[in-house]
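1st attempt posting a full record on here, be nice pls
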Amino acid sequence: MHVGAFVAFYNAALLEAAGIDYTTIETWDDFQAAGAQYNQATGKAFGVASTGVNMVEPLIVAQHGGNFFDEDGNVAVNSPEVVEALELEQAMLEAGAISTIPGGSPDSEEAFGAINRGDYAAIVYPAWYTSRFVDYMPDLAGDVAIAPAPVLEDGDVATIGGGGTGTAVVESSDNADFAAEWLAFAKLSPEANVAVWEVLGFDPVNMAVWEDEEVTKNPDNKFNQYFRTNLFDTLNEVADEIGHFEAFTNPNLPALDNMFTTVTWTEIFENGVEPQQALDQAQADLENQIGQ
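the predicted structure (as tokens):
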């Protein structure tokens, strides 16, 4: 049900101390240059190369105009667009702009501690990650700025939705109709969408809320108090350039996710395997696994 738009979370305090202005980061080339500079200046990690979650990769693949499946729904993880996306990430890794993280992703207990200590300065993740900062990284209050996710120089897509919360009604329930009616209210009504932001820190699926400054600019809101910049200023900046990643609706996505997060990303980000080779192997293994 809920899929948050990707944004970038920068520890502006750390970057300022290293002489880096996060507002100058617009493209992935900018991100790589800033990350390499930060790493060289501080010896610390800048961004994240996740091995345990398939999250940033869909964003970069979408920005390249690609997908993980072809038009017929067949696995196509070694397509040129996917290879280019992973080559971009591996180049950032080699430059020191991204590094692997404890727990395999920014959304793990081990990672929360590392980020809270200042071991990482830039997290590109869906907007719902605001809740992780507020709930698990209290020491960074006032230090973190939200900005648009990096883009390709000539890409058409600025961001896509990432993650996702699925909610269902059991069809055989004696109260299925009532449950569905209540669920529609809880997920889709204006009141519920305001609560999605005020309670959870998520970007509401009803984008009309994005324009309601009484809600989005409320100075008493705990998320507004935590971050240096306003989430909705960033979201409205990219609202007309939010793409859709078709792979998220493919029934073979779980198998693909499992392959990537148990084998492929480790091969690329920890073992130094060339993306083309790692993705060719993933393609062959997935074809065998799902009988394509």
